[in-house]
Fold:
Amino acid sequence: MSMLNSAKKYGLYTLLLGGALLASCDTEDPEPENEVEVFTDVTLIFTNNADASDVVRASAQDPDGTGVQELVIEDEITLTAGATYTLTFEILNALDADDVEDLGDEILEEDNEHQFFFQFTDGAFSNPAGNGNFDDASEGVNYNDQDENDHNVGLSTEWTAGDAQTGSSFRVRLQHQPDVKTGSTGVNDGDTDFDLDFVLNIQ
Structure:
């Protein structure tokens, strides 16, 4: 082999080795993405503020998690006219019966990334009045909880049932809003974790 060819050969090896080292130095671990939350059980729990024994539960279930099924509503909501209730949630990932995950705790930990929005038949409640905050995020919903930035969350809200009626609607949507949520973000900002429309009866 001539000295020129030998120099070319070793020059090529040096170039390739240097490129590999440079690439390894520039390679960084990818930024972690937000983990997809799997909701298999969502229960709305209305507790009468004047009588803690009066508890109304309405559930939706999706036993296959991210499979072909969606959350299926299993109950109607029936409230007493004129009564005031605190609404809370039980939100689970129960795909593994031996390791049930309480997603309510996760939402609480990441409350600056989540907000519940509500839509209901106009007149179903005397307080809040109107039909909810789907159309306008500033419309009245009685949130009991705020995140560290004083923005509404919705794991706890308060409702006073209106006059007797049947077949009304009570819809709740949980939005996941990482790096998006402000005091004015609305129902279409971020990604929807779940959107449930229950039949509401007041008697």
